Request: fold
Amino acid sequence: MKLEDLRVDGTRLRQSLEQMAKIGATAGGGVQRLALSDEDREARDLFVSWLKELDLTVTVDQMGNIFGRRPGTRDELAPITSGSHVDSQPKGGRFDGILGVLSMLEVMRTLHDHKVQTERPIVIVDWTNEEGSRFAPAMVSSGVWAGALELDWAYGRTDINGKRQGDELERIGYQGDVPCKHSPVHAYYEVHIEQGPVLEREHKTIGAPKGILCLHWYDIYLEGEANQVGPTPMEGRHDALCAAAEMVLAVNELPAKMGGNMVATVGEIQNEPNSRNIIPDKVHFTVDIRSWDDDLALRSWDDLKQGFETIAKRRGCPIRIEETWRVQHSPFDERLVQRVMDNAEAIGYPALRMVSGAGHDASYANQVCPTCMIFVPSVGGRSHVEVEETSWEDCEAGANVLLHCVLQSAAES
Ligand code: HGY
Ligand code: MN
Ligand code: MN
Reply:
């Protein structure tokens, strides 16, 4: 068979996705595989067993990133790497992340079946804790790998129960001793669901993002004064939850106020003591700001921070602000983006150039090697929800485009 006629096995890809979806399956039809949970370990063990079936050389680095390497005829050359993440959001979907990992696994299986030899070695990767939901920030392990985040800082990040990321890595048996440090990569591709409405609305099968927005994460801590809700007059209260409520609305109003192409969201909040007859005295909430324009995002944060200080002062609720994490916007390698478009067209998939509003490990890969992504549609534009859905045909299409992008990059001297 001519290489250009090679196609993946869509049924096998579907079977692998369905098998993975059983791990951490939720009653609502989604998955919960929080980073470094027992479900994450179970999924990792299954993934590693699949890598070994293909005689890949499996390595695990200090952040638990799992790599499977297929040798090339010119094995000394820098590899073509592709993958994504196995961890999910709480009540997440059956495609976010895992589709990218299993699409590359399907590519590896297809090359194995057809005994295809490539010049360059080929590497599949599962990045630890892409979601950043249990341990903030997101994409932390590709961030350490790319040299943008410190290993010890990442190890020290704690979840809501005070568990350390490093300890949990060790607990599940995936704290490898291979240094978490990037080596040369000739090209990095990542297949992912779009997690938005554009491809479906435009009736396109393949998306070729020009890059990913910047992501800025902040943590806000407010102190109030707890008291019995009955006898305490409204006048003179220091109600931390009311202060937070004003701030949450200020976040929601920020994009309109700053007039730029930006999104701003409060997704997580904890309120203490969280009893209906006690005035709240401790609140923590998160702020997520994203834009293609990093400066706009920074200017917006400065404006928001001033507003927070004013509210905190007026309500007598001292505020502590953590500027937790920032990753700049990531413009992908235009040559690779065009390759995605060309391969989609060659195979007969309608394709569209776009931007990614969701963060991905490709943000950090892009800092150290030529990088791009291959998107497939999200039904109803929904993601990070149990009803997250992508058609099996579109999953297969993404894997086919990945197959030919990988083959073409692997043939480059
Ligand atoms: O936040 C994101 O966009 C990704 O899911 N980590
Ligand atoms: Mn993802
Ligand atoms: Mn996600």
